[in-house]
Design a protein that fits this description.
Elements lengths: L2 E3 L9 H7 L4 E5 L2 H4 L9 E3 L11 H6 E6 L6 E6 L4 E3 L10 H4 L7 H7 L2 H12 L3 H12 L5 E3 L10 H8 L1 H11 L2
Parallel strand pairs: 1-2, 2-3, 6-7
Antiparallel strand pairs: 4-5, 5-6
Helix pairs in contact: 7-9
């Protein structure tokens, strides 16, 4: 294993055991995580910040295989990765694909009414517009950059993998942000 990625400020719980198992792997994360994980003795090799997000390089192999966008305008400081070869977008809280049938398939528990309702693109669109995009211009810019990538599959942290049609689903959920960015750049 060459890389361990903490995909945002909130999704890093398993980073410590993975780091213990693969101490030679480069640890990649977002600003603030180095302080948050300090007591767990994890040294981050790469930290994405708002200031370095357009210029940061990990290494030649990583930079050739992956597109990366740090989304500081997201409430959880999202790090989105596109594995170019497989046209696969990997993200934590940028989008959800609920209800999570895969995650609950071997459980007697249900995902609940909230998560079932959350699968409607309009609900997600409103949630991102009015809540999760804490810095809307920055969020819009990041979403616009991600929209230019070539991907079809999306692996979300919450919900089932979108095996095909991921780009269309992304555009549907992020419609207002894409339109706002496009309108702002026409001025």
């Amino acid at each position: 294993m060459k890389y361990l990625v903490a995909p945002d400020y909130e999704h890093h719980i398993s980073l410590t055991p993975w780091h213990q198992e693969y101490p030679q792997a480069k640890v990649i994360g977002v600003e603030g995580l180095d302080e948050k994980k300090k007591s767990e003795d994890i040294k981050f090799d790469v930290i994405y910040t708002k200031e370095n997000r357009h210029t940061l390089k990990v290494d030649e192999e990583w930079d050739q295989e992956f597109d990366v966008e740090y989304v500081p305008g997201h409430g959880n400081k999202e790090l989105v990765v596109n594995y170019k070869k497989e046209k696969t977008l990997i993200e934590a809280d940028l989008m959800f694909n609920l209800p999570a049938k895969e995650q609950y398939s071997k459980s007697d528990e249900s995902e609940g009414m909230f998560t079932a309702m959350f699968n409607y693109p309009g609900v997600q669109r409103r949630m991102f517009w009015y809540g999760i995009a804490v810095d809307r211009p920055s969020f819009n810019e990041s979403v616009s950059k991600i929209d230019k990538w070539d991907f079809d599959r999306i692996i979300p942290c919450h919900g089932d993998v979108i095996e095909t049609g991921g780009k269309s689903a992304f555009r549907n959920v992020m419609l207002w942000h894409l339109n706002a960015f496009s309108a702002g750049n026409k001025k």
